[in-house]
């Protein structure tokens, strides 16, 4: 029975994700200050995925260019490992898994380790970087293969005791990342679906 529940969960998840994928692949659909959230719930399993503009979470949307920006990226990655920093469930559920995917997180890390002065020295010697491709990654060039407006992708999964879907509050997200003004939320719960727009003034998604 549990296997059937999981199968249903991911079928519904795939349906919702199709719409989000189309939005992500359309550069015109990207907007600073606007995040996306998908909520899937069946019986006692809750899955929340979010796409958050990197510029709103980090203050920049390019590969880190100095040690301070690398540290900022690492701190954000650590913070997002705790869902309650941005998402709160009412009533609470038992966290099962966390998946945090940040752009640039591994890009150029090897180069940074070899160069104690970080990316800034590499950037200032741009002509050398373009002339010699054998000295590691060229972060500026590599950044061009990333999306023009990269997003941070989160996936959180809980097991809930109650048979009804808990209310979901994003007050923590709006409080900590003030440049995010709205979240487009869509949900599938126990065979029903819907969508709504959350904001700083209406941060609670109730079912």
What is the residue-averaged pLDDT? 75
- The oligomerization state is single chain
**Helical percentage:** 25-40%
Strand-pairing-aware structural class:
alpha+beta
State the total count of DSSP E strands.
9
With strands numbered from the N-terminus, the spatial order across the biggest sheet is 4-5-2-1-7-8
What is the molecular shape? globular
Biggest sheet features: 6 strands, mixed
- Assess the beta-strand content as a share of residues: 25-35%
Organism: Simiduia curdlanivorans
Region (Disordered): 114-134
Biased composition (Basic and acidic residues): 119-134
InterPro entries: ZrgA-like
Word description of this protein:
The protein has 207 residues and is an alpha+beta fold. It folds into two domains: 2-61 and 68-103 and 150-205, no CATH class; 108-145, no CATH class. 33% of the residues lie in helices and 29% in strands. It has eight helices and nine strands. A six-stranded mixed beta sheet has the order 4-5-2-1-7-8. It has a three-stranded antiparallel beta sheet with strand order 3-6-9, with no helix packed on it. A hairpin with a 2-residue loop joins strand 1 and strand 2. InterPro entries: ZrgA-like. Residues 114-134 are annotated as: Disordered. Residues 119-134 have a biased composition (Basic and acidic residues). This is DUF2796 domain-containing protein. Pfam families: ZrgA.
């Amino acid at each position: 029975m549990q296997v059937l529940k999981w199968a249903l969960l991911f079928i519904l998840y795939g349906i919702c994700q199709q719409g989000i994928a189309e939005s992500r692949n359309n550069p015109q659909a990207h907007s600073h200050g606007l995040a996306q959230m998908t909520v899937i719930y069946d019986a006692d399993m809750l899955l929340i995925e979010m796409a958050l503009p990197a510029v709103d979470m980090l203050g920049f949307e390019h590969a880190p260019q100095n040690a301070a920006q690398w540290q900022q990226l690492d701190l954000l990655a650590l913070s997002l490992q705790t869902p309650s920093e941005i998402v709160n469930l009412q009533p609470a559920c038992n966290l099962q898994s966390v998946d945090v995917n940040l752009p640039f997180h591994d890009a150029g890390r090897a180069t940074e380790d070899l160069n104690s002065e970080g990316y800034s020295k590499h950037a200032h010697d741009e002509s050398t970087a373009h002339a010699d491709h054998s000295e590691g990654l060229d972060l500026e060039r590599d950044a061009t293969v990333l999306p023009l407006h990269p997003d941070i992708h989160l996936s959180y999964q809980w097991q809930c005791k109650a048979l009804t879907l808990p209310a979901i509050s994003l007050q923590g997200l709006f409080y900590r990342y003030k440049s995010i003004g709205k979240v487009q939320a869509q949900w599938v719960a126990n065979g029903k679906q819907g969508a709504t727009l959350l904001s700083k003034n209406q941060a609670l998604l109730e079912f």
